[in-house]
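Entry 14. Structure prediction run on the chain below.
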Amino acid sequence: MPLTTREWQLAARPHGEPTPDDFRLVELERPDPAEGQVVVRMLAMSVDPYMRGRMNAGKSYAAAWEVGETMKGGAVGRVVASRSPAVPEGALVLADAAWRDVAVLDSRSVRVLPDLPGIPPSYHLGVLGMPGLTAWVGLFRLAGFRAGDAVFVSGAAGAVGSLVGQFARLNGASAVIGSAGTPEKVRWLLDDVGFTAAFDYHDGPVAGQLRAAAPDGIDVFFDNVGGEHLEAAIGAFREHGRAALCGAISGYNAVEPQPGPRNMFMLVTKQLSLRGFIVGDHVDLREEFEREVTRLVTSGELVVRETVREGLDQAVPAFLDLLRGGNTGKMVVRLADDEG
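Output returned:
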């Protein structure tokens, strides 16, 4: 019998900030699985800042969503029917098949995940998934973190930034400074996550607040925001400072090119290194990352927080809220209870 699914589609490409009218929730009939396919009931889906770029036409590192088609993204689910010996029924899997409640997928397109006692499946979308690997790769490979470094993280209360700060702290950083968008997030970074300093970027120029938080300068900058934060970090760097450039959410909804830092000549005078990266180019570190971070989560050394919305109907509101900074830690949408 054909499967009836509920799926979010891109209804229009946004101009500036997306609105609910740019999305459409539909019911579709999908055929029974063919040989080599599986049926996956989604448990949780991810919404991430990079998805804003997928709403635009044109070439980028992640394929654009097509108008009128179901959107894609990370999701974890249970296999409820299988016609593949490689993926048994009951398996927990990761798939690029978010924005729907059920999916019929080629078994080669899913990754079977371990069931980890006491660890929610949604952690595979955050701390043990792409955001966690992004933090690990950016800090250790791109920025070349060393014990004793002073580290500044923009967007520090998000899924990636909160982990960058903790990885640095747990590996001997001399200071970990973070910026965030609300007083509540700043308190969380200081009281729960273990940052040595944090500030609300709405309270004044970032450069001045960073100077007060790190009067002796910084060695490493992990950037999720861009714009004013990047300029401030360049000004605060000591000689041979290193930056991992992960995102620039401050400009994602801009309809005109945004001005760049005005102090770029300091890259020369301070002999700085700024490196942009795409986490998909560094999957060779995934085994190391998963081993070490699973240990940290299991031992309780790592603080993990999720902002959870309930039900597929909340996927678009969750995504739009994420773009406005409405999350602390990882934003996920819970789609079903796990009976696995």
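The chain has two domains: 3-126+305-334, 130-280.
Filed with the rest of this week's runs.
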